[in-house]
Amino acid sequence: MKPIRLIPPETIHTTIQLPSSKSICNRALVINALSEKRARLDNLSDCDDTRVMIRALQEMPDTIDIGAAGTAMRFLTAYLSVCEGTHSLTGTQRMQQRPIGILVDALRALGAEIVYSRNEGYPPLCITGHRLSQAEVALPGNVSSQYISALLMIGPALQNGLRLTLTGDIISRPYIDLTLQLMRAFGAQAGWTGENQLCVEPLPYQASDAYYVESDWSAASYWYEICALMPHAEIELPGLFRQSPQGDAQVASLFASLGVETRYEDNRVILSKSGIKTSRLEYDFINQPDLAQTFVVTCALLDIPFCFSGLQSLKIKETDRMAALITEMSKLGYVLEEKDGSVLMWNGERCTPDAFPCIDTYEDHRMAMAFAPACIRLENVQINNPQVVSKSYPHYWEDLSRAGFSILEEC
Predict the structure, then answer these.
(1) I want to staple 217 with a disulfide (CB 3.0 to 4.6 A). Which of 123, 248, 259, 299 is the partner?
(2) DSSP assignment of 335-362, as one string?
(3) Same domain, 126 and 201
């Protein structure tokens, strides 16, 4: 797909049907596949990550290529470890640079048979599945929550269940709680037994007839950003709930500091301008790392200095998001500073912006979606490789068009 340039409308008054939660979809798919009785999963996402997971679980080929889907890589590594047969699990070149050793070591401690096909600690993997008899394992709590969730979800399939101890600080706790909630919805007995200990009983999943997947709060963040940057806006987002298990539902209270009011009505939210903005924003994104790009772009364009911590996991995402944000924000005229590999800040320092800023997306869907609304405040913003949004929000550009944005393909 050619690079695109966006021209915003003067005002926005629209209703947008967001994609369903990718986090919930992929967990529900794995849990359902492990269930003795399968549920009908309603409102599944049609994004790349979910389609990859569906295809892998349905077809179970000898070689499973998950492309750029990091969640699928982690969840399937655990899932294949408890399923009969031998499979090769691989992905894109970037995926083969993303570490997975901590998860593999934990699974091996439970008795899994996993071999690195190329580089130690990284995909591709060769996995021979069988029922695992060991029950106790420990791993650091400050690693990706997807490692922890991958282990928890296979717990009911282990011969003696799972007793998982997390050492040190625990990051992304809301995603662990999301996994536990979904497991219990499918009949598992799983939960916290201490501040850093989790237990899963060796009782098979028993799914109900149907499970409905709610809309994605991560995707909603880009519409919050648009509302914050627009002079006048009202945006209705169906399928979002006040009592959501998604950690990124925190976006509503965070954007209240940036001038966006959230009203909850009949399983939907309505965003509008409040006119109340903070003079500086400091926040620890340890539990919501996927929101970081949205808030970096929004705060800078609103001229609100910020200091965001808890970002250490950004370095092992689809790209090194810390480095990517620093590089691309400089094209817009903002000088960001990184500290200790986990903090990103902007103190108001500016540089000369590019006359025609071309935003590189680094095969990262969130770079494209977070930077696109910059066109509201800056002219001639171009998004390179815009097709990357298919990873989580394939209809993003169509939804922007529906809201009144003009999207022009560049030569």
Answers:
(1) 248
(2) --EEETTTEEEE-S-B-PPPSS-EE--T
(3) yes
Q: What is the domain range of residue 246?
A: 4-19+214-409
Q: What is the pTM of this model?
A: 0.87
Instruction: Report, as residue numbers or ranges, the catalytic residues.
Output: 290
Quote the CA–CA distance of 321 and 234 in Å, as a whole number. Answer: 30
Residue indicated by tokens 């902007």: 346
Distances (CA, A) of 43 to 20, 132, 249, 290: 6, 33, 19, 22
Query: How many whole angstroms separate alpha carbon 32 and alpha carbon 24?
Result: 12
Look at the block and give the residue holding tokens 């108001």: 348
pLDDT digits (tens, 9 = 90+) for 179-233: 999 999 999 999 999 999 999 999 999 877 899 999 999 999 999 999 999 999 9
CATH number at residue 336: 3.65.10.10
- DSSP state letters, 226-243: HHHHSSSEEEEEET--SS
Cα–Cα distances (Å) from 101 to 97, 147, 184, in that order, read: 11, 10, 28
Q: How far apart are CA 200 and CA 182, in angstroms?
A: 13
